[in-house]
């Protein structure tokens, strides 16, 4: 398979973008400790972090309309500027209001950042090209994730607020790195017909992200609690994040080889993903083994799943709106899963929770498989030879 030379420019610019985006894991791990050093209660810290999800959910769809009008490249530029402002405010902030505004800006960053998928869709014509770009960009992002996780492992021993502030500021400065490269990427085309509302088909398809988000909201949240219950401290948890980044790198590169025919590999990986999620509470050592399998299948499946999703959205003709609705439903599902895991835990502790999470993930994956088969494979079979 010969890949068009323009794809190399696209994947390089997106790789830098993904790398910088994944550095945010440093902030995710560091902020609770930073805020506790300032004397904030656990409840207040949770409320501040929750602002991120609320902001992102409210802005996902408006950002998709913005991207349709002005192009995905403009949306990504806006996201990087918001990312800098968010981290700068976190670096200089002292009050709950300042930190809440910082997380609101981070949510806005994420809402515009999802349109990087529109750039991939606009610059690719075949599933293997989509996988080629997405695999490389995602695997590079995991390098950023590993770097940020390892950086935090050093901060774990620091009790200096200044060190944390410098880290947040450096994260903000890094946001400008992708901007020069993004100017060279072909922007998305403006739609011929413009509407404010997504199609019914688009909304039905967004249930894929809802189901997978619900399952992940249960499993990933409980997984963190499980490791803490087993005596892992935050330093060791940060090393687990770094390990998951390494697994994600190899999983993303592995997925690239199946870009031309992603359906069956995606389905197989989805089964392994759900199966390993359902077995994450089998004792610490077995959990670590299943965690490796869970992480590998999760991230490899994520690359192929994104390929399926972008190809279906291109067939529907609503890429920007589709990415917006998928993100909204994914976050809503994740939030409901996070809430539900408490009730499921009361009924059957970790085992029952992971089983429900695995079933939700598998259901969403099967639905994605069905849509891709209907719109992509079905369309090819009807094409005159």
TrEMBL record:
<feature type="transmembrane region" description="Helical">
    <location>
        <begin position="131"/>
        <end position="158"/>
    </location>
</feature>
<protein>
    <recommendedName>
        <fullName>Major facilitator superfamily (MFS) profile domain-containing protein</fullName>
    </recommendedName>
</protein>
<dbReference type="InterPro" id="IPR036259">
    <property type="entry name" value="MFS_trans_sf"/>
</dbReference>
<keyword id="KW-0472">Membrane</keyword>
<feature type="transmembrane region" description="Helical">
    <location>
        <begin position="239"/>
        <end position="255"/>
    </location>
</feature>
<feature type="transmembrane region" description="Helical">
    <location>
        <begin position="204"/>
        <end position="227"/>
    </location>
</feature>
<feature type="transmembrane region" description="Helical">
    <location>
        <begin position="74"/>
        <end position="93"/>
    </location>
</feature>
<dbReference type="Pfam" id="PF07690">
    <property type="entry name" value="MFS_1"/>
</dbReference>
<dbReference type="GO" id="GO:0022857">
    <property type="term" value="F:transmembrane transporter activity"/>
</dbReference>
<dbReference type="InterPro" id="IPR011701">
    <property type="entry name" value="MFS"/>
</dbReference>
<feature type="transmembrane region" description="Helical">
    <location>
        <begin position="43"/>
        <end position="62"/>
    </location>
</feature>
<keyword id="KW-0812">Transmembrane</keyword>
<feature type="transmembrane region" description="Helical">
    <location>
        <begin position="12"/>
        <end position="37"/>
    </location>
</feature>
<dbReference type="InterPro" id="IPR052528">
    <property type="entry name" value="Sugar_transport-like"/>
</dbReference>
<feature type="transmembrane region" description="Helical">
    <location>
        <begin position="267"/>
        <end position="294"/>
    </location>
</feature>
<feature type="transmembrane region" description="Helical">
    <location>
        <begin position="164"/>
        <end position="183"/>
    </location>
</feature>
<feature type="transmembrane region" description="Helical">
    <location>
        <begin position="352"/>
        <end position="372"/>
    </location>
</feature>
<feature type="transmembrane region" description="Helical">
    <location>
        <begin position="99"/>
        <end position="119"/>
    </location>
</feature>
<keyword id="KW-1133">Transmembrane helix</keyword>
């Amino acid at each position: 398979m010969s890949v068009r030379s323009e794809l190399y420019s696209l994947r390089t610019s997106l790789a830098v973008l993904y790398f910088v985006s994944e550095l945010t894991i440093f902030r995710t791990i560091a902020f609770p400790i930073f805020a506790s050093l300032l004397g904030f209660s656990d409840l207040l810290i949770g409320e501040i972090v929750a602002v991120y999800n609320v902001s992102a959910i409210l802005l996902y769809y408006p950002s998709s309309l913005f991207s349709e009008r002005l192009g995905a490249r403009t949306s990504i530029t806006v996201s990087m500027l918001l990312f800098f402002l968010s981290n700068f405010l976190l670096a200089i902030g002292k009050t709950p209001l300042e930190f809440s505004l910082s997380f609101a800006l981070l949510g806005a960053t994420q809402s515009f950042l999802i349109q990087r998928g529109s750039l991939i869709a606009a610059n690719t014509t075949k599933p293997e090209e989509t996988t080629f770009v997405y695999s490389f960009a995602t695997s590079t992002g995991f390098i950023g994730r590993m770097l940020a996780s390892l950086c935090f492992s050093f901060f774990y021993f620091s009790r200096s607020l200044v060190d944390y502030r410098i880290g947040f500021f450096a994260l903000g400065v890094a946001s400008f790195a992708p901007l020069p490269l993004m100017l060279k990427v072909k922007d998305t085309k403006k739609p011929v017909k413009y509407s404010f509302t997504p199609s019914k088909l688009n909304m039905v398809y967004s249930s894929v992200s809802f189901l997978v988000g619900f399952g992940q909201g249960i499993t990933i949240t409980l997984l963190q609690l499980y490791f803490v219950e087993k005596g892992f401290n935050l330093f060791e948890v940060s090393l687990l994040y770094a390990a998951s980044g390494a697994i994600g790198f190899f999983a993303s590169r592995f997925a690239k080889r199946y870009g031309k025919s992603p359906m069956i590999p995606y389905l197989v990986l989805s089964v392994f993903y759900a199966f390993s999620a359902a077995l994450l509470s089998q004792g610490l050592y077995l959990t670590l083994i299943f965690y490796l399998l869970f992480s590998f299948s999760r991230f490899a499946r994520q690359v192929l799943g994104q390929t399926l999703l972008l190809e279906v959205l291109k067939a529907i003709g609503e890429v920007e709106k589709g990415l917006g609705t998928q993100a909204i439903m994914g976050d809503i599902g994740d939030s409901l899963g996070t809430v539900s895991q408490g009730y499921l835990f009361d009924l059957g502790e970790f085992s029952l929770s992971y089983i429900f999470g695995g079933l939700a993930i598998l259901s969403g994956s099967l639905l994605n498989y069905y849509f891709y088969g209907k719109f992509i494979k079905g369309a090819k079979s009807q094409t005159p030879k």
